[in-house]
């Protein structure tokens, strides 16, 4: 059975604002890296069939579980589906020598309007077995908290 990792959060902003933050290069660099990391996008092509390459660097490299190097995770992300303002589907492939991180993971960002703003649900399928599930779900939750802070401050 394919492993599925999930996290969700209600963001106090309209779906259109949340969707825009999913497709803005500067915004993604600011909010996508989870706590303890910083990110840099090397190329950017925000259209179906396009994508981006993100380098995530651990702020404290001591004992960091980097997939690409001791202190970094490099991931090629493709935009498989863009359905404004409700859904973004990404494919993610980590650059790693360890086969435990091989394969294509699919990240689905589902946005639903609620009384409090937008319920954002992230579902990751085909997660490589080298990625610890609890840490991955905590990382997604951290990114969602960053997303909320980003769009709520802008709103």
Overview of the structural elements:
This protein is α+β, with helices and mostly antiparallel strands and 155 residues long. It has a domain at 4-34 and 79-154: Alpha-D-Glucose-1,6-Bisphosphate, Chain A, domain 4. Strands 1-7-6-5-4-3-2 form a 7-stranded antiparallel beta sheet, covered by helices on one side. The longest helix has 22 residues, at 133-154. Helix 2 crosses helix 3. The radius of gyration is 15 Å and the shape is globular. A hairpin with a 5-residue loop joins strand 2 and strand 3 (51-58). The model has no long low-confidence stretch (mean pLDDT 94). The protein is built from 3 helices and 7 strands. It has helices at 15-22, 25-31, 133-154; strands at 4-11, 37-45, 51-58, 72-83, 87-94, 105-114, 117-125.
What does the radius of gyration come to?
15 Å
Q: How would you name the CATH homologous superfamily of the domain at 4-34 and 79-154?
A: START domain
What global shape is seen? globular
Low-confidence stretches: none
The portion of residues assigned to helices is 10-25%
Task: Write down the secondary-structure element order.
Answer: EHHEEEEEEH
Spatial separation of the terminal alpha carbons: 41 Å
């Amino acid at each position: 059975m394919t492993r599925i990792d999930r996290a969700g959060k209600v963001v106090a902003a309209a779906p259109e604002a949340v969707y825009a933050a999913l497709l803005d290069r500067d915004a993604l660099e600011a909010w996508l890296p989870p706590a303890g990391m910083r990110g840099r996008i090397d190329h950017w092509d925000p259209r179906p069939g396009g994508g981006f390459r993100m380098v995530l660097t651990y702020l404290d490299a001591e004992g960091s579980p980097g997939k690409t190097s001791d202190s970094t995770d490099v991931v090629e992300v493709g935009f498989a589906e863009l359905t404004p303002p409700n859904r973004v589907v990404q494919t993610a492939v980590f650059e790693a020598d360890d086969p435990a991180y091989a394969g294509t993971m699919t990240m689905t960002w589902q946005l639903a309007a609620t009384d409090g703003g937008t319920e954002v649900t992230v579902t990751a399928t085909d997660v490589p077995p080298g990625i610890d599930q609890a840490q991955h779900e905590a990382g997604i939750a951290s990114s969602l908290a960053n997303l909320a802070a980003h769009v709520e401050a802008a709103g």
